[in-house]
Design brief:
eight-stranded mixed sheet, alpha/beta, single chain
Length: 461
């Protein structure tokens, strides 16, 4: 069987000058997705390429495009990416080749907003989906040969209908290829049908590179800002990205760190595009060691020396966790992804369980004041769901008992109201017990719980 990981770039029909640049930059052998995709794209096939994060998908389409670029001032390739951070990153990859092949500095044009349209004559246009339609009236595309949809699941399934309709007209004038780390069987069929793609390259076994190790950290009653500060002091990563699911929680975490004297850069999708670019550039250039980010940053961003990813909480869509983790372990380098959780919080444990049931091996740590302790062996979800089921069954038993106590062979006035009140009282007592238990677990005082005395008394009558 062919070992595609050992295939050299020279085994393709790439031009000598392109191969020389690869050699000069230290690239000799292709990754699996590159070995399968590049030959197809050189033959002008439409390709759907699926590969884990950090395995070289960008170079898989950059090389075939660069290989047949002509310096004629006409757009020959369009790259559509969901974020400006990705556009900037892909632009850098292209320029590594075009600058050495004698193309002018404006040959690769990235459009971040409507203000970026100008009189430049690019041969490759990099653009977000929302600006694709507008670009058609600014740049000559009569020689457009290829369109690449990068991080395609975000582009196709996140509401960019207008751009996608524009792509389909006319489809026979250009080749459309689609790159992603995550698509299910139904979505693959949909993409193939929408873009007339016959060739599917799927080298996935997981979304995240296998070199990334996954860990969970029980922060117990610690505040998240305090927990992150303690974790970084103990683990001491050279460069780390901490992800937070909600924007308000992201701001709260940044404020918390600032109060205890730890500085971090901040990036989220609601920021000005230039500010996003500047923050990521600063982080990339080693000026800062910690980036606080929303899931805007979880897709495609390539910073090779990020060794540590921290999920302060978990996203509702489990897929996004694996994209987060994929910011470490780029190009087969080792990396670590840590998940903060509270073992006493059933919702937190269930979120971690959703990660584990995807086949992810998790080892566990306990974080407390002064130390980070690793537990022996993988984390086990011994009683997941049993406690919840037991509590539910207990409540139902108490409700049945309350109903039976109020039953009578003779139908008395207000019978239904009395039964309803009895059931309501049982539920109130049950809820009070849960609240008091949670207060105790969090280190609080049960006296802080204030029940409505009037309501309880009224129910008893």
């Amino acid at each position: 069987m062919e070992n595609i990981e050992e295939l050299p770039f020279g085994s393709t029909s790439l031009k000598k000058e392109v191969l020389d640049i690869l050699k000069e930059d230290g690239f000799s052998k292709m990754s699996p997705v590159q070995a399968k995709t590049i030959p197809l794209m050189i033959k002008n096939h439409n390709v759907l390429a699926l590969a884990p994060t950090g395995t070289g998908k960008t170079l898989s389409y950059v090389l075939p495009i660069v290989n047949d670029l002509v310096n004629n001032g006409h757009v020959q390739a369009v790259i559509i990416s969901p974020t400006v951070a990705l556009l900037d990153q892909v632009k850098t990859v292209f320029e590594e080749f075009t600058s050495k092949l004698g193309f002018p500095s404006d040959a690769i044009k990235a459009v971040y907003s409507n203000n970026d349209f100008n009189r430049a004559k690019p041969v490759v246009l990099l653009i977000t989906p929302s600006l694709y339609t507008a670009s058609l009236s600014h740049y000559p595309i009569n020689e457009l040969k290829r369109v690449i949809i990068d991080e395609g699941d975000m582009v196709v399934f996140d509401g960019f209908k207008e751009a996608l309709e524009a792509l389909k007209k006319p489809r026979d004038a250009k080749k459309i290829s689609f790159f992603s780390a995550s698509l299910n069987v139904q979505d693959i069929k949909r993409v193939k049908s929408s873009f007339l793609i016959n060739d599917v390259v799927d080298v996935r076994s997981t979304i995240t590179n296998k070199t990334v190790k996954h860990h969970i950290v029980n922060i117990r009653s610690l505040e998240k800002g305090e927990a992150l500060d303690l974790f970084l002091s103990e683990h001491k990563p050279f460069k780390a990205i901490a992800f937070v699911s909600k924007k308000d929680d992201l701001f709260a975490l940044a404020d918390s760190l600032k109060k205890i004297g730890r500085h971090a850069l901040l990036v989220h999708g609601g920021m000005d595009k230039r500010d996003i670019k500047n923050a990521i550039d600063r982080f990339r250039k080693d000026e800062e060691g910690l980036l606080l980010a929303s899931d805007y940053v979880s897709r495609g961003l390539d910073i090779p020396d990020v060794e540590c990813i921290i999920s302060i909480d978990l996203p509702s869509d489990t897929q996004y966790y694996f994209h987060r983790a994929g910011r470490a372990g780029r190009f087969s380098a080792p990396g670590d992804s840590f998940i903060f959780y509270n073992e006493d919080d059933s919702d937190s444990v269930k979120a971690v369980y959703n990660i584990a049931r995807r086949g992810t091996s998790l080892d566990s740590y306990i974080l407390s004041q002064g130390h980070l302790k690793k537990n022996k062996g993988p984390y086990e979800f011994r009683n997941l769901g049993k406690k919840d089921r037991a509590e539910s069954e207990k409540l139902q038993k108490q409700i049945r008992h309350a109903v039976n106590e109020n039953k009578s062979k003779k139908v008395k006035p207000n019978y239904k109201k009395k039964v309803a009140k009895a059931v309501d009282l049982v539920k109130l007592k049950h809820r009070k017990k849960i609240v008091l238990t949670n207060i105790a677990k969090s280190g609080g005082n049960a006296k802080d719980y204030h029940e409505d005395k009037r309501r309880t008394t009224k129910l008893k009558k």
